[in-house]
Amino acid sequence: MRHIAIIGSGPAGYYTAEAAQKALGEAVRIDIFDAMPVPFGLIRSGVAPDHQSIKGVSRRYEKVALSDNVRFAGNVTIGRDVSVAEMQELYDAIVLATGAPNDRALDVPGEDLGNVFGSAEFVGWYNGHPQFADLNPDLSGRTAVIIGMGNVALDVARILAKSRAEFVGSDIVTHALDALDHSKIARIVILGRRGPHQIMMTPKELGELGELERAVPRVAETDLPPLEADAVLEPGLRKSVTLLRSFAATPESVRAEKPISLDFVFMSSPKALIGNDKVEGVKIEKTHLVDGRAVGTGTFETIPADLVVSCIGYRTSPIPGVPYDERAGRFANEAGRILPGLYCVGWARRGPSGTIGTNRPDGYSVVEKIREDIEAGALGPVRKTGRAGFDALAAERDLEVVTFRDWKRIEEAEEKAAREGAPREKFVDIEAMIRARE
Ligand code: NAP
User: Cys-Cys crosslink for 128: which of 142, 173, 313, 430, Cβ 3.0 to 4.6 Å?
Assistant: First the structure.
């Protein structure tokens, strides 16, 4: 029997478990660990609360979780409660599927001003992640500036723009719903350092901005390249740019009906955040493109801002004893291999890109590496104790391990506590989650 530990129960973790079951069958036991008492990582705390159909993928992971040779062990932080070296004594293979939960820094003066947040914090707030549930962003100002032109920027813009009624059916946590209900934000600037042809927004997600009840996207006609230039774009991007064109063509009479504007500001690189204690503006430098890169033109402007959310990407949390690529912000690895018996997958392997489904081939490919390494004798003889060894260590350390059955009780309590029309009301603190399983 071989024992595999997967660290992280988000998409990358569960696809890896599924792949290991298929490739190694009854000859393997798989333990999936999570620092949180609840599973599914990004599905629970990253995917937007109004994108419930995407969250539905967790049902597929649940099928894996409930199989005999797979076990969930929540509320265990590898690298703190148990070291990676200790895990290596217990398991033949360890796969780090820990994602990229930390914000990349903007690295500009003023980043520490009040009401400036990274998207991990802001998304964590409205999704009820215990670490960020108390963020308490001030939404009493008029203008929010969102930095970045990717899908996360779109999520944040949409959440800030939606009315209470538009959240029906979502699992946005009540503290965020109530705060957003009292929001005074009327202008949401989406700031890009490059142009319309360089956006990272996908068409379905961008299209949603055009269907909001009380907000309208605004794109200046003069910012768009000539129509013929779209011909060379790959089809997805071309669709997105076509949407920008339709936003630019929206008549002023239609725009005037909606009180919130979502203003696309291109070719503007953030250089400083300005304010005393709290942010008051974003100083930008206008840019032009040189070989696809944004280069400053020497022209500066300041955009007023009462709230800033930077949505410019994420970094993996380092774990003591695991080689880390500082520049890329992920584990140092060669196609998923870090050290003998130690692997990584998903965002922890390749950085924060791609959709949830991208993690599936990733999971299958890392399991292929494990299988090759077992066959080549690189993982040593069959002698590891796996979950029996882990359970002994957990008992010795008094760790309060949360099982999948416990999670089902927590889930039931969350479903019972749901607002009318909502699928659940999430617990936003770890103690409450742990208590709810009793
Ligand atoms: P992303 O797609 O990489 O976009 C990051 C944006 O930040 C880019 O526009 C980038 O501009 C900009 N940026 C980076 N550094 C900057 C800086 N220093 N100053 C100004 N702008 C900067 O990342 P993301 O939006 O965080 O999304 C992460 C992944 O999750 C993506 O693959 C995304 O598609 C996926 N996701 C999918 C969904 C969905 O399908 N519904 C929802 C959310 C996220 P440059 O291009 O100029 O670098």
Answer: 173
Tens-digit pLDDT profile for residues 310-329? 999 999 999 999 999 999 99
Which residue's CA is the closest to the ligand 1 atom numbered 38? 151
Taking the alpha carbons of 51, 54, 59, 64 in that order, is the dihedral positive or negative? Answer: negative
pLDDT in tens, 396-427: 999 999 999 999 999 999 999 999 999 999 99
Contacts of 187 (CB under 8 A, 6+ apart): 142, 143, 144, 260, 261, 263
Give the SS3 label for residue 1: coil
**Angle, CA of 285, 290 and 291, to the nearest 5°:** 140
Burial 68-102 (b: 16+ CB within 10 A, else e): ebbbbbbbbebbebbebeebbebbbbbbbbbbbbe
Regarding pTM above 0.90, the answer is yes
| Closest residue by CA, ligand 1 atom 18 | 106
**Phi–psi pair at 176, nearest 5 degrees:** -75, -40
The pLDDT score that the predictor gives to residue 318 is 97
Going by alpha carbons, the residue nearest to atom 2 of ligand 1 is 150
Distance 108 CA to ligand 1 centre (A): 18
Ligand 1 centroid to Cα of residue 155, in Å, is 11
Q: What is the pLDDT of residue 59?
A: 87
Q: Which of 117, 121, 200, 267 to mutate to test the pocket of ligand 1 (most atoms within 8 A of CB)?
A: 200
Collapse the DSSP code of 231 into the 3-class scheme (helix H, G, I; strand E, B; otherwise coil) and give the result: helix
Q: In what order do the strands lie in the sheet with 268-275?
A: 268-275, 279-290, 293-304
Instruction: Choose between 66 and 181: higher pLDDT.
Output: 181
Tokens 């890109």 locate to 353
Residue with tokens 């796996």: 386
pLDDT of residue 207: 98
What's the confidence (pLDDT) of residue 291? 96
Q: What tokens does 411 get?
A: 């889930």
In terms of Cβ atoms closer than 10 Å to its own Cβ (0-12, 13-18, 19+), residue 317 is middle
Ligand 1 centroid–CA 121 distance in Å is: 15
**Cα 42 to ligand 1 centroid, rounded to whole Å:** 16
Q: How many CB atoms lie within 10 A of CB 333?
A: 23
